Fold this sequence. Notes:
This protein is α+β, with helices and mostly antiparallel strands. It has helices spanning 60-66, 72-77; strands at 2-6, 12-17, 25-29, 34-40, 44-49, 52-57.
Amino acid sequence: MFSIELKSKEHVKSLSLQNTESGNVLIEGFLGKLENLSFAEGIMLEINGSNGSLRMDFSKKELKRLLPKRTYIHKKLGKGVNEE
């Protein structure tokens, strides 16, 4: 599950829903300057920008598994970064 909420339609670059069997969908836009990253209940990643927000089912555990162990954010995730 994911959601994208933008403050204005001016921040949408393109939205494409194809009338083909494959049913490809493309959503492009501009979240703007990064303002905050957080996890709601440890299971929902929320990326907040100056133009809007992107929320998706992506756990803190999954993100930590994907990041290289030497990254700053990987180390911070182990210490409770911005949990709501």
